[in-house]
Design brief:
Keywords: DNA-binding, Sigma factor, Transcription, Transcription regulation. By secondary structure, this protein is mainly α. It has one domain: Up-down Bundle (Butyryl-CoA Dehydrogenase, subunit A, domain 3), CATH 1.20.140. The chain is built from 10 helices and no strands.
Length: 194
């Protein structure tokens, strides 16, 4: 767990993103025991999971698919340089996080020159699968600063350790802990005022 104690908001975030992870049908232990051997296997096993990760970071399915496609293209270019196929999943996560950051930076730049617009609404199907509590948490995640959202999504949806999050985002383990703490506080305030 991130932080010293488990607050109500942390439990809610963990429940919501854990619920989404379960909906993915992906089991972390299965992935580790049956590492993909080819790029095609990796694509078949990880593509939708990476798209869902990107959607949680950029909040737009079409853009998320583009980010993931770019990540797989980069992996294809560097496939021969990987130390083993297990490293490919980490490469993909990092590429998806970095690609999502680039998208968000471009959005920010575009917004400076255009009037702000409302983000696209989530699909009715995805919202129907979530309870009202889960919907409120997913909506509140969208209001967090980029790094805070990344840390919570990677921790509770990606089921990653602090070390893995630090590696994927390029920050120190201590920064991951403090960012998670601040993110949970911000969610507490948002959900408390709702």
């Amino acid at each position: 767990m991130i932080g010293d104690g488990t607050s109500g908001v942390e439990r809610s975030v963990e429940r919501t993103l854990g619920h989404l992870r379960v909906l993915d049908g992906a089991d972390e232990q299965e992935e580790q025991s049956q590492a993909p051997l080819t790029l095609e296997d990796l694509y078949r096993k990880q593509q939708m999971r990476m798209v869902r990760l990107a959607i949680l970071l950029v909040d737009d399915p079409a853009t998320a698919e583009d980010v993931v496609q770019e990540a797989f293209t980069g992996l294809y270019r560097n496939w021969s340089q990987l130390r083993d196929s297990k490293a490919a999943v980490g490469y993909l996560r990092t590429a998806v996080v970095n690609g999502s950051r680039s998208v968000l930076r471009r959005r920010k730049t575009a917004r400076e020159y255009q009037p702000p617009h409302q983000p696209d609404a989530r699909s009715a199907e995805s919202l129907a699968m979530l309870s009202s509590e889960h919907q409120a948490i997913v909506a509140a995640l969208g209001h967090l600063p980029r790094r805070q959202r990344e840390v919570l999504v990677l921790r509770y949806y990606g089921n990653m350790s602090e070390s893995e999050i630090a590696e994927a985002t390029g920050v120190s383990k201590g920064t991951v802990k403090s960012t998670a703490s601040r993110a949970l506080e911000a969610l507490q305030k948002q959900l408390g005022s709702a």
